[in-house]
Amino acid sequence: MLSGISFNGYDDHGNAEWNGLANVDRWRFEFATSLADIVGSFNTNTNLWVKTYVFKRLAFLGNKELSSIISLLFLALWHGVYFGYYFCFSLEFFDVEIERRWSKRVESYTKPLYLPQNKHNPSIQFWRRIHQLVGWLGQTCALHYAVVSFVLMKWEYIRIVYNSVHWIGHIIVFSLLLLDFILPKHKKTSEVNSKMINGDSKMVNGDNKMINGDIRNSSKKIN
């Protein structure tokens, strides 16, 4: 603070902010309801650097999943060459991917829980809390399970721990991934609405053609 390096501008009330070097948003991290919240609240400066100088630089690949894999590989190499680092970050990729895919699947059910007009609805509040609790439990279990290999580093130790729990985390993750491929994809609300609008437009155009045809026939009869 004395050097001024942590100065980060002013807030909305004109107060100086000295969080320029803050690397953890502790409240968001402790009460995170998704892995995306974890990534956005822990080791934030490093994550921002990797996002800016690695992930975004890979845009030419035209594949976000591949860019994410390379970025995670870079992070693993950043930590060292132990097997556990690569094992941990590879599982993290699948965890985040599963979260993204299934969040989209249940979006039509969860999105209304966070709409402003439902903020004070007791029933909606109850289910919103349930959704947040499930999210917190899910990300906590996924994070703690994956970080085992990061901490133990060596395969001989990692194998013992995961064998003791029958690789349950991996089974759940890859089962959900397989299930996502098997189940039919849900159409986005915008796509459904667009098709409905297009369908209505076609019906209107069809009705107009019929009306125009009737008018022409009537005109011919009169003539």
Automatic annotation (TrEMBL):
Query: A GO BP term, please?
Result: lipid modification
The metabolic or biological pathway listed in the UniProt record of this protein is: Lipid metabolism; Phospholipid metabolism
Please classify the protein's predominant subcellular localization into one broad category: endoplasmic reticulum
One GO molecular function term of this record is: 1-acylglycerophosphocholine O-acyltransferase activity
Q: Where in the cell is it found?
A: Endoplasmic reticulum; Membrane
InterPro entries to which the protein is assigned, alphabetical: LPLAT_7/PORCN-like, MBOAT_fam
How is the protein disposed in the membrane? Multi-pass membrane protein
According to the UniProt entry, where is the signal peptide?
A: none
Instruction: Tell me the protein's name.
Output: Lysophospholipid acyltransferase 5
From which source organism is this entry? Gigaspora rosea
